[in-house]
Amino acid sequence: MLVGSYLSLVVSRVLGRVVIDLHGPLDASTVRELGDRLVDVIENEGARQVVLDLRGMTRIDATGFAVLVDALQRIRRHGGELVLSGATRDMTEAFREAGLDQAFVMTPAWTHPARGRPAPTRNRPAGWGQPG
Questions:
Q1: Cβ(132)–Cβ(117) under 8 Å?
Q2: In what order do the strands lie in the sheet with 105-107?
Q3: Residue range of the domain that includes 97
Q4: What is the longest distance spanned by two Cα atoms in the chain?
Q5: Which of 14, 80, 88, 99 is spaced 20 to 30 Å from 128 by Cα?
Q6: CA 5 to chain centre
Q7: How many folded domains does the chain comprise?
Q8: Has residue 2 been placed in a domain?
Q9: How far apart are CA 24 and CA 33, in angstroms?
Q10: How would you classify the pairing of strands 81-85 and 49-60?
Q11: d(Cα 48, Cα 127) in Å, to the nearest integer?
């Protein structure tokens, strides 16, 4: 039986990008796992393009925002880019209320056929910010 919050992270690499799918709350009880993983992929693995897929994120608090800001600063120091993708309306509003909606690149859900999502078409190419 799980006690407290649980955050699931699924890390994949697609076309030179590290994509991390988040499922669950990003709060004081779960933030360390994501923070450690982000430090690892940015500092130790040298990732310069990181996508955080937020479609499964259910909640975020100040500690969650802090770990995302830290990751953004880290990757920018290395000339990289952190993209937040697929945030729900509630998550988008939480970023707006925290004054962070302009600090991050936020896109609709990122898709690519290698990720098991619909294949690109002429009217819907794969890549950053494509609905999925």
A1: yes
A2: 8-14, 17-26, 49-60, 81-85, 105-107
A3: 27-112
A4: 47
A5: 99
A6: 18
A7: 1
A8: no
A9: 12
A10: parallel
A11: 16
- State phi, psi for 12 to the nearest 5 degrees: -140, 165
- Is 32 a domain residue? yes
Cross-strand bridge partners of residue 24? 57
Q: What is the pLDDT of residues 31-63, one digit of tens each?
A: 999 999 999 999 999 999 999 999 999 999 999
CA dihedral for 26, 114, 126, 71, sign (positive or negative): positive
**In degrees rounded to 5, what are phi and psi of residue 41?**
-70, -30
* Dihedral sign, Cα of residue 56, residue 130, residue 72, residue 81: positive
- Domain CATH number, residue 65: 3.30.750.24
In a domain, 64, yes or no: yes
> Residue 25 has which token pair?
């709350």
Residue 123 CB contacts under 8 Å (≥ 6 apart), including other chains: none
Q: Residue 63 CA to chain centroid, in angstroms?
A: 15
Q: Which of 72, 91, 74 is nearest to 82 (CA)?
A: 72
The pLDDT tens digits for 2-19 are: 445 789 999 999 888 999
Residue 125 phi, psi dihedral angles, 5° rounding: -70, 160
Does residue 18 belong to any structural domain of this protein?
no
The DSSP code for 40 is I
